[in-house]
Specification:
By secondary structure, the protein is α+β, with helices and mostly antiparallel strands. It contains four helices and five strands.
């Protein structure tokens, strides 16, 4: 919450410090009660390979099968860890980096590539916040766009993933 002096009152378990700037870098884990402005209706959540409900071991087995289809030389390599989590995918599938009108900075929408893109865009938004030119990116201030009547139900993910898998099969024959 922005105070009268232009700083933010940041609620923490240890008190309420004041901050000149605030960054929200959450991707698929945004708390809708505090950051509902990232979502339109429901937020997009998926886990594992396709987001379909199945045991984690089954997802890991499917991921391994896909990996070996592309990298046959890894057939003898065992998978050591598997996990699933939330993803954020804007309708246009483009990352979002910017500053809201109330002064809160953000980076989100990494469309199933949260680890590498989150690190990269987190650094970009921090540099931008500090006024460094290295913080510039083509994704700075890209608007959150959605087609008319879109209410947050990610109906497009199934067809999109089917198209991506077909494209992968075609180019990796």
């Amino acid at each position: 919450m922005r105070s009268n002096g232009g700083t933010f009152d940041v609620q923490t378990p240890l008190g309420v410090p004041l901050a000149r700037d605030v960054i929200v870098a959450t991707n698929g884990y945004a708390d809708k009660s505090d950051m509902g402005w990232f979502a339109r209706g429901k937020r997009i959540i998926t886990s594992g390979r396709t987001g379909k409900a199945m045991p984690l071991r089954a997802k890991a087995d499917l991921l391994r099968k896909d990996l070996i289809a592309v990298f046959a030389e890894l057939a003898d390599v065992k998978v050591g860890f598997a996990w699933s989590g939330y993803c954020a995918a804007p309708f246009d599938t483009m990352p979002k980096v910017g500053r809201r009108p109330d002064g809160v900075w953000y980076c989100t929408g990494f469309t199933f590539m949260g680890m590498p893109q989150g690190s990269y865009f987190g650094r970009k938004v921090a540099l931008k916040m500090l006024g460094h030119p290295e913080g510039e990116t083509i994704y700075a201030n890209t608007p959150f766009r959605a087609p008319p009547l879109y209410n947050g139900n990610p109906w497009f993910l199934g067809p999109l993933m089917t198209l991506v898998r077909a494209k992968d099969r075609f180019y990796n024959r």
